[in-house]
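step: validate -> pass
step: tokenize input -> pass
step: predict -> running
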Amino acid sequence: MKKFKFAIAFGVLFLASASIWKISEWIEPSFSYSKLESLEIGDELKLNKLSKTLYHIQEQYADPERVNPQEMLKKVFEYLSLSIAEVSIEYPTDKYAVLQVKDAKKQIDLSVKTIYGLKTSIADVLKFVLQNKISDIRIEELETTAINAVLATLDPHSQYLSKETYEETKVGTSGQFGGLGIVIGIRDAVLTVIAPLEDTPAFRAGLKAGDQITKISGEPTESILLEEAVKKMRGPKNTSVTLTVMRKNWTETRDFKITRDIINIVSIESQSLNANYGYVKIKAFQEDTASSLKAHLDKLKEKAGGNLKGLIVDLRNNPGGLLDQAIGVSDVFLKEGVIVSTVGPKNKLLEEDRAHQNGTQPDYPIIILTNIGSASASEIVSGALQQHKRAIVLGERTFGKATVQQLFSLPPDAALKLTVSKYLTAGSKSIQNIGITPEIRAVPAMVKKDMFDLIENTSSFREDKLEGHFSGETQEQPKKSEVEVRYFLDGNQEDENEFVSLSSLDSDEKREAKLLSDFEISFALQILKNTKSASVKDLLKTGRALSSNVEKQESEKIQLALSKLGIDWSPAPSGKKGKCATPEVTWELLTKQKPLRVVTGGSKFMIRTTVTNKSECTFYQLKAVTKSKSFVFSDQEFIFGKLLPRETLNRSVSVELAKSSPDGLLPVDINLSDDGQVKNVVSQMIVPVRATAAPDFAFSYNIKGPVKLGETFDVGIKVKNIGKAKTDRASIALKPEEGVLAKIKRNRMPISELKPGDERQYHFQVSVLPKQTLGELYFDLEISDFAYRTYLKKTLTVPLKTTVKNNSRDFLLPPHVVLTNEKDLLKPQTTKYITIKGEIEDTQNIKDMYILLNQKKVFYTAFETSNAMQQKVPFEYQLPLEAGENQVSIVARDQSDLFGRKSYILFRTEKTE
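step: predict -> pass
step: emit ->
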């Protein structure tokens, strides 16, 4: 399904997607690191975090065969090349690499075979980079880059966690934090209360769903990032925060001063259905989930008069959590048998967790609801109950992740998330890449006036789509569901807030009605009510018997919704079908019903697809869907329905191109099919795109006040729009780099409409913490426009001393990149190589430039001469193109380390001269 949802933050919960955890704090061990001790080279290079990361990989990684020091070293080269302009890498042979940092070159032996050898090689590489770099980059950043590169060779779930991410992870698994107790989200670009949680400070203060938060402690929330808003609202118990709120029908805002308290994250919701049946929603697996489940089941049993006749367990969009809680939840429903086994290298059994009869729920029928967002811990529970024949599963196939991660702290404040084992559901089956296949598959079909979602997306984002995923231990193809039901989803009533709690303020009747408006819950309840035993065989038999009538009813709903739009979606009559000529497919771009040759970033237009039937056959349920690397153009559906002999039909979809779209040619495939005769007929269209005028930024800065321990100083930033369009959702932010102990009272501010040529002043109040040990403070300044994706970034270095003299009075602006043969590039290319010609201009001297092709650096040059650097330089490069779409970026840098960029999407046909 292609769904458009509001961004929502619970202000309570942020778990890494699709994870199952074992938590282990770092305790300085009694063992020796042996050859992995903290390495120092002179006085400038210490790699403690890298040492501990490599140690844990060597000792505890789930699959030692994936630990390839040579590939890790190559990935470090790749990451350094992408993150540092002057770093390039070449491989003259498979035995060594040549690392180039500006003009300096170093030959690196690639025959590294051990983790210790890798550590030594990385340290050697980083020292060489430090000695020859011209970028403003610190060893801490280089170390983080190296760690990320090493982990990228393992699997998609082994990751380095920064201080912020680590803190969020601990909050998510502990289930507690200091805060207000509200779910917040961005609606119509405004920070909005989605729901206050019952019996929390926000609830008691009188906040209501729909309230717009315009200020947090006096700071405007315009253009605030959701995670920043959450961070500002959290804090120690008994501290206070003031929210300025606007509510519907109010004439002016009102302030709510709220005292923070300990907020317990609600991981489970429940509701009785038809008095004798229960519904339980498990949102995530945190420290109290199993015990909380038992309490909710006791309440449901009490409401059912002691006779709970059946239960629906909703695991949809549950991304995982703690392994022991997944085991505990499964144990609630199982009397005996293996719940899950964890295995190490070569499937060596590490641990086996079994069910216990004591405390097990009675044998009432259970149906588990899953979808593609059900992952990891959710899959352990659904897999264990399914394989032990304690429940059936209804919904979508799950994510397909069968690995376990463990957290290790990397002092002072970061962490390593490492895959330490794999698991087998019910002790015998790996669901890696396959997921849990439901016995009853429910497939939604959505119809809206301006959008359809009738065609199932076969390229859904699951574990097997992640780069570097583990292969499955058994079959690679999921089994087929025993029953399939296609149901109508009214697009005009689609719940855009799936993660929002049921309101405790609503009556039982209203809560129940809301749940039963969900097809899968309603269908599951029908099955439970019509099944006379807890046997999964009976549940499936009932589901199969009911599905035929339900499928017919839902099909009629779909046909009726389409008929209101003038589309005949009747199925083909039964009987033998003859061979027919495939309908012809053409397309065109339109604006205000007029042909459009080129589309511009930020514009709205129509894609009209036409099918012509030149045969004497009738086609039924004819449809087309687009596929493209561009999200905007992919999965657009054209629903034609019944196509009579010699008939021509056309359908249109409305498309809005992002303002950030670069110049280029976008290939889009149109796949035509019907209910049986036409399959996988592909027609390609090439969409010419031209970048729109955009804002761009220059700035100057001024620092006032003593930069001393325990003191506060002012950073003044003057911003100027040097672009050709006014800003749209722009902001300015100043953040301390990792390791810098400083606080900024308001680290992000909105840039309200700034027209070309306009300038505006902003001030940041920075407090230096007494524990700061660095002699210099490093701050990342970012001026950005989210709509246009225009970014200007600069690291400000501020020495700890009474007076500061590193201010800039003149505006600093990025280099300007111009291609002189742009028209030739924006045509379909028929040769393997094209020449890129252009010029770089700046008010400052230009340091260097490089070219990225499909996220790989293919060219670098510095512009220093024997006399001085230059402010205007030409460039020319012969660029190799792959067949199809090629993403090209030309990047230039000036002496202030500001970057200018020009991006293109170039298209090369399959045939070449």
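step: describe -> The chain is about 20% helix and 40% strand.
step: cleanup -> pass
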